[in-house]
Amino acid sequence: MKTKILTSAVLGISFFFLSFYSEATHIVGGGFQMIANGNYNYTIQLTVYFDEINGSSGAKDSKVFFSIFRKSDNKLMVNIPGVLLDTSEKIISYKKAACGTQVDSVRTRVLNYSKDVDLPASVYNDPLGYYVVWERCCRNNGIDNIQNPGAVGQTFVMDFPPVSKNSQPYLNDSPVFKPVPNTLFCINQPSFIDFGATDFDGDSLVYEIVDPLSSTGTATGSPVTDTAVSGPYLPVLWSNGFSTAVQIPGNPELSINPKTGLMTVTPSMLGLFVFSVSCSEFRQGKKIGMVRREFQQVVISCVPNTAPVITLPDPTRNRLLGQNDTIFVANNTQTKTCINVKVSDKQPLQTLTMRALPLNFSPISPISGDTVKLIVSSTDTARLNFCLPACVGSTRANPFHLRVIAYDNGCSGSLYDTLDIFIVLTVPPSFMPSIGLSIQDDELQVYGGDSVTIKVNTVVQPTQVNQIKAEVLTNRMQQIGLSSVGMFFPAVSGIGPLSGFFRWKAPCAMPVNQPYTVNFVASTNFCGQNIVLKKPVLLKILPPKINSLIYEKGSDSSKNRIEIEGETDISYKKVLVGKSRAGSRVMLSPLTGSLELQKYGIEFAPASGITTVESEVSWNPDCSHFGLPYPADILFRSSGVTCGGVAYDTLTLKINLKPTRNIEFNPINLLTSNEDNINEKISLDVFNALPGCGVEFEGISIYDRWGKKAFYTSDPGFLWPLTRVQYGVYFYEIRFNNQQFQGWIEVMK
């Protein structure tokens, strides 16, 4: 895993410098940076540079917004409001004794706004990519190379690629410019600024001087809006004598190295000048993104600068080391060995910076490369110890090539001195790394089509760099690629204990009992000495073993029968589980036809997956399902597929629908024949005998008070009008297939 830190000096930066260019509003410059956090989440950071001296504190925005557009059609994708100002702020001061007192009024505050946003792969997948924008007004009135600068806003924009390509994640971090130096340009003196950037993804970077961009959605009356205007964006209007090619006049004029980002100029004119640089990132020869840095630079009069001088005594002999000298150091086993470096500068009251750069070995070991800054006078000498850690043991084959650099902070840019030395030292043997595996034996048998996972751990000194990887050999001890036999184990490297996972799905087509020897390799580099430990594991392929199983979740997996006796208007649910060998494909499906399932009111969705799958079967009976054959058997099947072979298992769902046992019976006991059409007939409705599902009407008998049968029918839809009935009291008997009712009813006029 790579570690990335959001720095305060990011894409697109501008400065405001001198009090005599101070008719400014507040915004000096700014720009974007974008970091991929994983799972399509990104941190978008905006850095704004604020004129600390001449800017109004009320103009410092407490929150901003971001707008994202699609490049192919400039469609607005999203507005991201409420991006709050980070409480941590940094002040950049430009006061230098060598530059004169005029820079005392120059000070810039660094404001950072950042927010984590989700960019779904289903939305942000356009091949041409996207751009994020923020607009703000206004620029400094004192800028000399553009027209009407106090009424011209700025547009901060960054291009970024889609987050996915071909349905796969496409991770990318934007390039990050180096922190902004507090550097001033001096007239008629060579001046430079390092605009080089770092790309965490290892993409190729190309630099170019481009036009600064004005804003379209903001103006002096409305310096900020709720949403940005889509591109393309118009460049600033240059003053007479200035152009894209001549942004700072000089001999030579302002230029940039397209590969390194180093900008150089020998200015020929005093003033405040704005210019802009783009940094494009390329992956596999194709441009995928671009960031911009806009910069306001002042050119002043300066006193001449002199370079510092490095002095390095030989710790073993009474002499001073010269360029490319070799020294022999017998390092102590318990304590570090230090080399004393001295640097002096005839220019008074400058800040000197010294660094030790390892050229032919890792900067992590064995020599630290700390940077030290010291202020010295013309009569003093700065001293610094560069130390080697304690290393005892074998001698490195090649000497350590170390470069010591000392540079000052003159107005026109740093002047420096370098000294290269070669160090031969005795280093100790490192502790042997250890390898631990999640399996007990050094031989493992795997069925064809099955998957195996082995966790690999290594333990080494926590301060050392180490690596674990795997290599595979055939039975003839010939090394072959892991991927050629379907094995997967990405190399893992880092500081201290490491772990990784070896994964292999045994191929079906491999010869049975074909052995492979997998060497798990742990290595460490300490003091130039590479130490390697190998732990072999023998893997054998056995003939594919196929099985399949289906059962109700939560029950005994050996039972392949489920019985349900149900009633209407109740839903019955069971979860079925299909299981096969680890890594094998398993499918759940009904054996009973879909029409049969629908007829009985059964719902089931087929499912498939690896090793284990689940799906719910539900039975929702109602009255329409009576009359069907019961009990009914509904069949389901689990299919395990391995190496082209299939194994089956079945499960029977036996259903039986019970009739409703309760009949609502709330009869009236009085009928009248008064021609009001109320209670003037005898039917089942009169008795309110409402049968449930599965209950059948068998007949009704009505007797007069002397026991003579007055009426009988087996038709449930019968109707006996009172016009045929004499007044009096009658006895009735109603019979259903599961229940009967008796009672008295009176007919009167």
Walk me through this protein's architecture.
- The protein is mainly beta and about 750 residues long.
- The protein folds into five domains: about 20-300, no CATH class; about 310-425, Sandwich (Immunoglobulin-like), CATH 2.60.40; about 435-540, Immunoglobulins (Immunoglobulin-like); about 550-655, Sandwich (Immunoglobulin-like); about 670-749, Immunoglobulin-like, CATH 2.60.40.
- The protein is built from two helices and 53 strands.
- Strands 29, 31, 32, 34, 36 and 37 form a six-stranded mixed sheet that branches.
- Strand 26 and strand 27 (about 415-425) form a beta hairpin.
- The longest helix has 6 residues, at about 595-600.
- It is elongated and about 145 Å long.
- The protein starts with about 25 loop residues before the first strand and ends with a strand.
- The model is unreliable at about 1-25 and about 365-375 (pLDDT under 50).
Task: Name some characteristics of this structure.
749 residues; Immunoglobulin-like; 5-stranded mixed β-sheet; 47% strand
Strand fraction equals over 45%
Q: N- to C-terminal separation?
A: 98 Å
Identify the overall geometry: elongated
Strand segment tally: 53
Q: How many domains, in number, for the residues? A: 5
Give the radius of gyration: 43 Å
| Helix proportion | under 10%
Regions with little confidence, pLDDT below 50 for 5+ residues: 1-24, 363-377
Multimeric state: single chain
Report the biggest beta sheet as strand number plus sense, adding barrel if it closes: 6 strands, mixed
Please tell me the overall pLDDT. 80
Alpha plus pi helix count: 2
Structural class based on helices, strands and sheet pairing: mainly beta
